[in-house]
Design goal:
Blueprint (H helix, E strand, L loop, with lengths): L18 E5 L3 H18 L21 E7 L4 E9 L1 H7 L8 E2 L10 E9 L6 H18 L3 E9 L5 H8 L13 E2 L18 H9 L2 E2 L4 E3 L4 E9 L5 H8 L4
Parallel strand pairs: 5-6
Antiparallel strand pairs: 1-2, 2-3, 3-5, 4-7, 6-10, 8-10, 9-10
Helix pairs in contact: 3-6
Length: 254
């Protein structure tokens, strides 16, 4: 799940907007989400995205996924998105996107209840807490409605400095490592031994949010050369979700 830093910009104070969240209902909704992904990943972050249609980020997984979108109802445009791959559709296509980066053999028994999320991004004018909260609440509602128990994906750390920040951050996250039975293994590992571990760096807010909610890190980071990111494998057992997050996003009682 290659992701962008979708934190609020303290210098940006957008006017109050009417936003809504839901699964894409039409092909046009999906195209709008793919256009937003291209704008953020390719134009803003410089990712290499081979695509058949200019300005559209699409791959072989998209037709098998559901697309969660946040829409500005007044403007009629998609301003945030997550891509969701259900266990049933992962079986249909043959694997999860994450399996291009990690060996998920140890998660075999979880696959019937394992949902993959990815390609999360938010339009730069809408990087506020409200947009992010809507994405998370829509995702939580999806998990409840379909009775799935686990979320998996890849959370990204930029490598503009060659990977030193990513290696240093990973070295400080030992308390969040998963039990051994949930460990996965990068196919193209970040060369941790060749990188500094003392770089001053702040954990991306999206990763910080996952960990605060109760997610595990399931192994060492992989290097994604197309996005030039270090990708951490994240696993969220819904049963581990912190009660504050459960109440806020999923409507669960204490």
């Amino acid at each position: 799940m290659t992701t962008t830093p979708i934190q609020a910009d303290p210098q940006r104070r957008p006017a109050r907007r009417k936003l809504s969240v839901g699964l894409a209902r039409s092909e046009w909704d999906v195209i709008e989400a793919q256009r937003l992904r291209y704008r953020v990943f390719a134009e803003e972050l410089g990712a290499r995205l081979p695509t058949a249609v200019p300005g559209i980020d699409q791959d072989i997984y998209d037709p098998f996924c559901q697309h969660l979108v946040v829409r500005d109802d007044a403007e009629g445009c998609v301003v945030g998105t997550y891509r969701i791959l259900s266990p049933e559709n992962a079986r249909r296509i043959g694997n999860y996107y994450s399996e291009n980066e990690f060996d998920l053999t140890r998660l075999q028994l979880l696959r019937p209840r394992l949902v993959e999320i990815g390609r999360s991004c938010v339009h730069p004018d809408y990087r506020s807490g409200a947009t992010i909260a809507l994405l998370w609440s829509g995702l939580a509602q999806y998990m409840l409605e379909h009775s799935h128990d686990y979320l998996i994906g890849c959370a990204s750390i930029g490598m503009a400095d060659g990977g030193h920040a990513a290696a240093s951050l990973f070295g400080r996250l030992g308390e969040y490592m998963s039990p051994l039975e949930y460990r996965v293994f990068p196919r193209c590992p970040l060369p941790l031994d060749a990188l500094r571990r003392d770089a001053q760096a702040e954990l991306p807010p999206l990763i910080k949010g996952y960990l605060r909610a109760g997610a595990y890190i399931c192994g060492e980071p992989a290097w994604d050369p197309d996005f030039n990111t270090a990708d951490l494998p994240i696993l969220m057992p819904i049963s581990r979700m912190d009660l504050r997050y459960a109440r806020h996003f999923m409507g669960r009682p204490d």
